[in-house]
Amino acid sequence: MIEKTVAELSEALASGEITSVELTRAYLDRIALHNTELNAYITVCEESALEQARIADEQRAAGSTLPLLGIPIAHKDLFCTKGVLTTSGSKILHNFISPYDATVVERMQAAGAVMLGKTNMDEFAMGSSNESSYYGAARNPWNVDKVPGGSSGGSAAAVAADLCAMATGTDTGGSIRQPAAFCGITGIKPSYGRISRWGMIAYASSLDQAGPLCKSAEDAALLLNVMAGVDDKDSTSISLPEEDFTASLNESLEGLKIGLPKQHFAEGLDAGIEAAIRNAVAELEALGATVKEIDLPNSDLAISAYYVIAPAEASANLSRFDGVRYGYRCENPVDLEDMYKRSRSEGFGDEVKRRIMVGTYALSAGFYDAYYRKAQKIRRLVKEDYARAFEEVDVIIGPTTPSPAFGLDSIKDSVTMYLEDIYTIALNLAGLPGISVPAGFVDGLPVGMQIVATDFAEAKLLNVAHQFQKVTDWHMRKPILRNAASQQREA
Amino acid sequence: MQYETVIGLEVHVQLSTESKLFSGSSTKFGAEPNTQANIFDLALPGTLPVLNEKAVAMAVKFGLAIGADIGKISVFDRKNYFYPDLPKGYQVSQLDYPTVGKGSLTVTLEDGSEKVIGVTRAHMEEDAGKSLHEDYHGMSGIDLNRAGTPLLEIVSEPDIRSAKEAVAYLKKLHSIIRYLDISDAIMAQGSMRCDANVSIRPVGQEEFGTRTEIKNINSFKFVEKAINYEVRRQQEVIEDGGRVVQETRLYDADRDETRSMRSKEVANDYRYFPEPDLLPIVIDDAYIDAIREQLPELPDARAERFTQEFGLSEYDAGVLVASREMADYFETAAKLSDDAKLAANWVSQDLQALLNKHSWEISESPIQAERLADLIKRIKDNTISGKIAKTVFETMVEDSSSVDAIIEAKGLKQVTDSGALESLVDQVIAENPDQVQQYRDGKVQVIGFLVGQCMQLSKGKANPAQVNELLRSKL
Q: Is B179 helix (H, G, I), strand (E, B) or coil?
């Protein structure tokens, strides 16, 4: 049962085939069995999960038909959860019990979801491998010597290994799509402003966007129905007519115009991944889509612009972690400056410090024009590239990542790590929605295909992804977990 | 060498919104520490600002009152620095696109001349909390009640040339702000704060001298003293062959001096950048027009009207309109009593003296405008004399009964009954034969003495005009 999609579990729960308590118990058991190795969860909320499941079963008995009633979810550990440890993957929040719920968490709860726990992540969402987590790296369920991707690596690993039915993540430069690709699941980064950021611990405010990681495009649509919507607590959330993202899942792809950016099929792309993506595009052509090459001339500038804007915003966003009001404070500070310096240097990890320094530098008097202002210009150019492309095509398709999941500790320098996000980062700069869906395997590791649509055209993305998943089974492939395998052998 | 003083003022005014600039917490003054700080004010991770529209309306109101350009698009920026009373580690302010652009204020100087002082801009920002350095087991305490209170920072051009001009500018600013009802603007409580940028230059020199910024000035009087001290200090530095150092100086009112705040002045790099959690404020003409319609009559216009409608002198009108409450008080008293001149005198003299004596705000006056009007009416209809009225006024401070009841109870009613007056006059004529003779011999000015005797005999209650007339006819 635990391997099923949200759509399937909803039916099973509705028909009485299984109760939420049974289902929740099953996930908790599996977490107990595999989390030590996968390190997908930082916090598991066994007691409260079972209590929520019990209430969900009662509600169902009383006739409730909430969309996610009784379905177990995992939240990335940067969503504030009332009464539950919320670390953002950092030592500096090692003791932070949030007194309030993020809007995303609140909405999931209101939809009846059962919270299993909080998932591992790169510290403050800064990373593409999950290795910057203070709580140790999460592992890729397809090969535990490989990274699950990042920063939402814990959520992706948990969904892929069936340690939950669904999970939330956030994506600032690829942090939902890249781990989804590495772990062989479906992950969508909605348009900027689609989902409230209230209660989401900020990395780079103008780029951060929450989204679901799940087992199918259909599930992504179901979750988006719950998560999306304007929130008066987030001034950058956007008011749009309410939309049912499942409504157009089954529309035909006949006449769909697909653009393949030549920059995303160029040097640096793994040959196996290229082949997988070209095969996937052929499947879509077989469904009636037409394909043309497009040009995104400023693609190569996106990473540089991102690594100015994101650290600049982060350098301010992370100033509140000062040891004064909550979180980590160094022992026996001699004065204020000592407290600031030691609390922050002991509380933050290296990658976070690196980005704070880069961001601080980029905003400094005398450098602002050369870095921050120029990066904002590039941001506009990147946005214009996409706007121009969308005059010709309906969706843009390419690989989510240039290579499959890499080995733990295999990437030592930051710049190589930053290049992992080469295909994903531009969308955050442009505020566009993108989805990664499983599209094949290379050396036993999943390949992700990224589909991009114009602003607020998530329904189109989900439609294309769902149609693709109806004719392929990549998203249904499951990793064989070592523990499970050895147990089977013993049995 | 003759020096010219150049002053620019930065005035922070706490806008009197009920809730904070970006959160729903109350802004009330004087609550228990940290009882008015919600999760946003504490800068918990994940919290976001939501702009208080009322603060924008107040800023626009101010802008329109000083004839300023209103920014059609204004943008909030983050000003980054670490301090324990700044919970986010940055202050949200406005750098390049303030809500209020260039405007000006006209002030009246002591010699009666007028001067226009430019306002460079006025921008919205959030206030910081307070560090409490009392004894917390050797540590400092932080109170975040004030953190996030909306401020309007009003920056003047360096158009001010003396401490007195600076005070005139501040008082005018204070008056306009009170008229607009956008702030309590009480310097002693910190709801209006003033930093002064002061420099001097040889008379005739174009370029400005090096300026110092004086902080911590919390009354109009101290503004004048602090600037005067600083001007003297800079002159001495220059005359001793030194150079003025650009720095921040604190004014110490107890010692009446300014002193350097930091030993080494490092230019702070606040690394401003646009606040990504907030959208730019877009203000359209319809919004501006709607606010313009809410603008009250401002002090200059009111003074003008007072001179025309009530025939007051420009000086009297200027004194009365300086405070909105005072002007309201006067206007009520003038209308109800139907004697503006008397009302103006009573308000600006007797009432003002009473308020000064007790350090009362006009709202705390035990004599309201309606009662003062009653008193004036009794002077006008000859029930009491102007002199007796002063006694009644003093009684009214303690006694909240009606004016008529006080006059009645104390037997202060003016004697106008001709029979009673006649016997009074007869008695005085009988008791002062020498003076009567002098009068009859042609020394008519002696009548004054005789009237005085009558008044004394009546304990001030006799109507002096009637007494005068009676005496003349009898003599």
A: helix
Q: Measuring CA to CA, which residue among B256, B244, B217, B246 is closest to residue B3?
A: B244
In chain B, pLDDT over 70 holds for what percent of residues?
Answer: 98
Look at residue B314 and tell me whether its pLDDT is greater than 80: yes
Provide the CB-side half-sphere exposure for B142 (13 A, CA).
17
Q: What is the pLDDT of residue B101?
A: 98
- Mind spelling out the 3-state secondary structure of A106-158? HHHHHCCCEEEEEECCCHHHCCCCCCCCCCCCCCECCECCECCCCCCHHHHHH
Q: Which of residues 371-390 of A touch B (CB under 8 A)?
A: 372
Indicate the Cα dihedral angle B282, B284, B289, B295, nearest 10°. 10
**What is the total residue count of chain B?**
475
The CATH classification number of B418-474 equals: 1.10.10.410
- Beta strand B73-74 with B281-282 is antiparallel
**Torsion, Cα of A294, A300, A302, A303 (10° steps):** 140
This prediction's pTM: 0.90
Is the CB of residue B64 less than 8 Å from the CB of residue B96? no
Distance to chain B for A328, nearest Cα, Å? 13
B143's tokens: 């109170």
* A363 at B interface, C-beta within 8 A: yes
pLDDT category at A489 given cuts 50, 70, 90 is: low
Which element (helix H / strand E) includes A171?
strand A166-171
A82 noted as active-site residue: no
Long-range CB contacts (within 8 A, 24+) of A14-18: A14/A60, A14/A65
The number of domains in chain A is 2
Closest residue, chain B, to A319 (C-alpha): B89
pLDDT at B263 over 70: no
B328: pLDDT strictly greater than 80 = yes
Nearest residue to B471 (alpha-carbon basis) of B453, B455, B451 = B451
CB of A437 closer than 8 Å to CB of A443: no
| Nearest to A442, CA basis, from A277, A284, A261, A262 | A277
Q: Are residues A343 and A195 in the same domain?
A: no
Measure A330 CA to nearest chain B CA, in Å: 15
Hey, what are A434's tokens? 């993108």
Chain A residue closest in CA terms to B52: A235
Contact between A320 and B45 using a beta-carbon 8 Å cutoff:
yes
Judging contacts by C-beta atoms under 8 Å, the chain B residues touching residue A78 are 46
CA distances from B171 to B107, B225, B319, B322, B358 (A): 9, 15, 12, 8, 22
DSSP helix/strand/coil, B400: coil
Q: Would you state the structure tokens that stand for residue B89, as one six-digit string?
A: 């580690």
Contact present, B378 and B338 (Cβ < 8 Å): no
Domain region containing A176:
6-255+458-490
The answer to whether the complex's ipTM is over 0.90 is yes
Check A90, A98, A151, A315 and give the catalytic one.
A151
- Minimal-distance CA residue of chain B relative to A80: B46
Nearest neighbour of B48 by CB, restricted to A197, A312, A324: A197
Tell whether B299 lies on the interface with A, counting CB pairs under 8 A: no
User: Regarding beta strands B257-260 and B248-252, do their DSSP bridges make them parallel or antiparallel, or are they unpaired?
Assistant: antiparallel
Q: Are B442 and B455 in contact (CB under 8 A)?
A: no
Domain with CATH 1.10.10.410 in chain B: 418-474
Chain B residues with CB under 8 Å of A102 CB are 46
Residue A190 lies in a domain: yes
| Distance in Å, alpha carbon of B94 to nearest chain A alpha carbon | 16
* Domain-terminating residue out of A362, A380, A398: A380
What's B297's DSSP letter?
P
- Name every chain B residue with its beta carbon within 8 A of the beta carbon of A235: 48-51, 277-279
Q: Does A336 touch chain B (CB under 8 A)?
A: yes
Identity of the residue in B42, B90, B273 whose CB atom sits nearest the CB atom of A319: B90
